[in-house]
Amino acid sequence: xxxxxxxxxxxxxxxxxxxxxxxxxxxxxxxxxxxxxxxxxxxxxxxxxxxxxxxxxxxxxxxxxxxxxxxxxxxxxxxxxxxxxxxxxxxxxxxxxxxxxxxxx
Length: 105
Fold this sequence. Notes:
This protein is mostly beta strands. The protein has strands spanning 9-14, 16-20, 23-26, 30-37, 41-44, 50-53, 55-59, 72-74, 80-89, 99-104. The radius of gyration is 14 Å and the shape is globular.
């Protein structure tokens, strides 16, 4: 469980569920609690290319299914971005700080 002190931001995520004739198709919007870090950093996308991440969202591991690659995420200020990577950080219960780290475009 992510400690309550790290659940200070709410994002809205629309999981990408496929592609249609008009582009990406998204599932229903879901609100997720976590903490948002606006630091810019380089990450590798699914093709292995280096891309710029404008922010990172940290949340519970149980939210993993909500964040498939390319899902649409609305940040607290209303900015819309997309999931570049979603990496589970599981400490096996050693520290109680297991979480999901989502790099956003």
